[in-house]
Amino acid sequence: MGKDLRPKHKYGLIGKDISYSFSKNYFTSKFNELGLNNHEYVNYDLKSIDEFKDIKSKEVKGLNVTIPYKEGIIEFLDEIDDEAKLIGAVNTIKIDNKGNLTGFNTDVYGFEESLKPRLNKSHKKALVLGTGGASKAVCFVLDKLKIDYLLVSRNPEKSQISYTDLNKGLLEKYTIIINCTPQGTYPKVDECPKIPYNYITKKHLLYDLIYNPEKTRFLKEGEKRGADISNGLKMLELQAEKSWNIWMT
User: Fold this and answer.
1) Tens digit of pLDDT for each residue in 114-172?
2) Strands, E, within the chain: which ranges?
3) Quick one: which of 122, 124, 82 has its CA closest to 102?
C-alpha cells in the first residue's frame, strides 16, 4: 500500500503528570475502529499552562484538558461556549480551519449521565471535595438536579467548609460524597481525602472522578462500609464521546 497522503488530524490531552490517563488509548482505539489512519491522539504533559502556546499547529484539530488546567486554559481561547462560561472551566477545545480555539465543557454531560442512574431517594445532599475546575462542572450538575451541596476545601473560602469541619452530623445529612481532587490517582494510590470514613453507611454514594486506579482508596473505604461506589470511567467515556461529536461538527 502507498503512503497515506491525506492531511494529518491530530488531537490530544493537555494536563500535568498525565501518564496515567486513559484518553490516549481510548481515542487511539476509536480511530482504529473507524479506520481513521490519518488521526492521532497525543499526550501534552505541560509543566506550566504557559507551554500551551508551543503546541498549537495546523495539524491539531481538537484538545481535551484535564487537571490542573481547566480554568487556566481559558485565557488562551478565542471563544468559549455559553455553558462552559457559566461553569468557569473548559475541558474540550475545538480548533477550526482558521486556527480559532473554542472552549467547551463536556464534563457536565459525562458527570450528569453517569450520576443519575445511581441516585435514590436518600440522596438529597452532596459533599464536593475540592474546588478546582472539575468541581465546577460537578456543582453545575448538582444545581441542575436540585441537589444541595457543600464545597470542602483545604483552604476554604466563603460558603465553603474545611475537612476538619466534617463530622457525624454532616455525613448523616450529606449522603453523596464526590471526590474532585487528584488524591488517590495512580501512582499515589495510598492517598485519599481526609474525611471521617467511620461515619459512612450503606445510605451513602461515594463517587470518585478518578478512574485510574479502578478502585481508589476513597472508594475502598466507602465500599467496606456498605456504600454504593462509582469511579470516573463512565464519565470519561461519555465526555470523550461528547468531545468527539464537537470536533466532528
Assistant:
1) 999 999 999 999 999 999 999 999 999 999 999 999 999 999 999 999 999 999 999 99
2) 9-15, 39-45, 60-65, 79-80, 92-95, 101-104, 125-129, 148-152, 160-161, 176-179, 205-208, 228-230
3) 82
pLDDT over threshold 70, residue 72: yes
**Quick one: cell of 94?**
475545538
pTM of model > 0.85: yes
The verdict on 54 and 116 lying in the same domain is no
Among residues 10, 61, 70, 94, which one is catalytic?
70
DSSP state of 132: S
In a domain, residue 244? The reply is: no
Please identify, among 50, 85, 105, the residue that sits at the C-terminal boundary of a domain. 105
Q: What is the pLDDT of residues 175-208, one digit of tens each?
A: 999 999 999 999 999 999 999 999 999 999 999 9
Assigned domain for 38 exists: yes
Classify residue 37: in a domain, yes or no: yes
Distances (CA, A) of 203 to 7, 178, 218: 53, 14, 16
Q: Which grid cell sits at 27?
A: 481515542
Q: Note if 70 is an active site residue.
A: yes
CA distance 123 to 112: 14
Q: How far, in whole angstroms, is CA 197 from its chain's centroid?
A: 23
Split into its structural domains, the chain has a count of 2
The answer to whether residues 217 and 112 belong to one domain is yes
